[in-house]
Amino acid sequence: MSLPEHLRAVITGGASGLGRALAVEVAARGGRVLVADLDEAGSEETLRLVREAGAHGSFTRCDVRDPQQVASLLDAADERMGGVDLIANNAGVAVSGKVGEIGLDDWRWIVDINQWGVIYGCHTFVPRFVAQGRGYVLNVASAAGLLSAPQMAPYNVTKAAVVALSETLHAELAGTGVKVSVLCPTFFKTNIMNAARGPAEHGGLANKLMERSRVQAPDVAREALDAVGAGRLYVVPMTDGRMMWRVKRALPEAYVRLVAWADKRRPVTGA
């Protein structure tokens, strides 16, 4: 099962980063895009790039923490694109720090966006896809959801939940014509750290790793859409992520000891 030639895609968090790259890639493949985000200016830039690729795009303001706003995306897709073929649950934020030191408000913030936002998206779009006998769900998680690095508990927990939800849906929807993929990249350049909550040095390190990555958002978007079209559940586009995931699956306790050892030797910079 390959992607339709004129794919109609709804992309949350489409104003920048991976969401923008997904929108542009859909456009390059002859599809249409509904960009959902709170950042209207960023979304307009995404739509400019979509139009440059010769495709149709539109914007709707959406806070994925609100199930009614997510549900309204389905109506918007029907009105502006005549339906929908793919939902990319991409909106996400980051929180870092140690368990017990991270504030509960920060936990609630990230769970509401990274976890509930994806749940609302699946809850809204999956029944439509089942009814029409075809559709694609792309849930954007992270290698963090597979690897559980220290000092990233809120991010790890929400992304692991997205992986679990995707695995469950993949099994539940077998034979329905609906395909589910979960995207688990490591580092590439996005704006996620601009609004991240946590120690300043964590953001600095993350930004350095993003800059150094040889695989960037357009590459991730291409692989993600190829995987969705092929019906692949797990999409782990970076070599480092695939290698660490293999080690963890083969030697789980040894892997946890290794990351604990590495965390104790992490240089402390900044304040």
Structural commentary:
The protein is an alpha/beta fold and 271 residues long. It has a single domain (8-238), classed as 3-Layer(aba) Sandwich (Rossmann fold). It is 54% helix and 13% strand. It is built from 10 helices and 7 strands. It has a 7-stranded parallel β-sheet, with helices on both faces. Strand 1 (8-12), helix 1 (17-28) and strand 2 form a beta-alpha-beta unit. The chain is globular. The protein starts with 7 loop residues before the first strand and ends in a 7-residue tail after the last helix. The mean pLDDT is 91.
**Percent of residues in β-strands:** 5-15%
- Global Rg: 18 Å
How many separate structural domains? 1
Given the C-alpha coordinates, what overall shape results?
Answer: globular
CATH C-level category = Alpha Beta
* Sheet having the most strands: 7 strands, parallel
Helix content: 40-55%
CATH architecture term: 3-Layer(aba) Sandwich
What name goes with the CATH superfamily? NAD(P)-binding Rossmann-like Domain
What is the helix tally? 10
Which structural class matches the secondary elements? alpha/beta
* Biggest sheet: strand arrangement: 3-2-1-4-5-6-7
Amino-to-carboxy terminus distance: 51 Å
Overall pLDDT level: 91
Provide the CATH topology: Rossmann fold
